[in-house]
């Protein structure tokens, strides 16, 4: 798919980008920006019809029966010690986390060292989001956006049987960090995100969320840092794959395989017109009988959809790789205006899928191709 790789500086002069941004009318949502390509900022409106919604609702699960997705078990590519009670987490960097970020995909690269962490095999499904959100709202949490089932579901509705394991979308960065706190508390873990030593519980309090602190020593669920995300996207049994290939474009020995089509490891703008069940890239898709979650092709670390399906939130504020970090570990700057997103998606405005491709977005924006996966420090 990719014939050549260009840095964003030679695709669009910075002066033009600034002028275009300043010319946007009030209320016009600025689309995610990729460092290697400036993309069309106008979203094509996509929504489900009432008839489709009614058909889905006939097959919907009752709220009290909604459960964590029954994802197909897969063999671990990178061994994980039995320290995680969550079977959908993969433990990484236990033998060292040194690598080079942006090695070939970015104008500026940097050596990074991540500490051992766990990350979900799957993007967060709407079913899990819905279950945690209901619990959270009964326990003092509130959200600006209720989320929706994949790219065409109805906002805040009960999960449907056929699409319950599609990723949650139409949530913003603020919703996600508050949800992570709720998920942590619901699972008996200690929430990571606080402001002035108080657990964040309201995603509409954006000022507090912008100034949030993450306690990396806690066992709660959180967003991965950008360094953790790229480490997970590129890790293989033989080392690290190239950052210019889609995550998972490797052979059985974990070596780069540029002849393996991106379509085999990702749902993207060339092979999908919307989200798909998590972990099904590389399978045949039939709307009336979609492939089960976890039945597709994983990357070299045993993770699914690290490229494609939905664009994933990271913790970090956007900054150049040579900017100083807020802490000793690589977590990005302490303040900023936009948050990092990774992985590309099914949508044409986020079509670049390389494991090193960077996107940035205002933390208050939400679209039907925005999603996330959880990580934790232990």
Describe this structure in words.
The longest helix has 14 residues, at 173-186. The strands form six sheets. The chain has a five-stranded mixed beta sheet. The radius of gyration is 19 Å and the shape is globular. Helix content is 17%, strand content 14%. It contains seven helices and 17 strands. A hairpin with a 2-residue loop joins strand 11 (235-236) and strand 12. The chain is an alpha+beta fold.
Short description:
The chain is an alpha+beta fold.
List descriptors.
disordered N terminus; alpha+beta; 3-stranded antiparallel β-sheet; 378 residues; 14% strand; globular; 5-stranded mixed β-sheet; 7 helices
Give me the side-by-side strand order of the main sheet.
1-15-14-13-16
Low-confidence runs of at least 5 consecutive residues: 1-29, 38-84
Average pLDDT number? 83
What fraction strand?
5-15%
The profile of the biggest β sheet is: 5 strands, mixed
Secondary-structure element string: HHEHEEEEHEEHEEHEHEEEEEEE
- Report the span from N to C terminus: 37 Å
Structural class label: alpha+beta
Number of strands: 17
Shape: globular
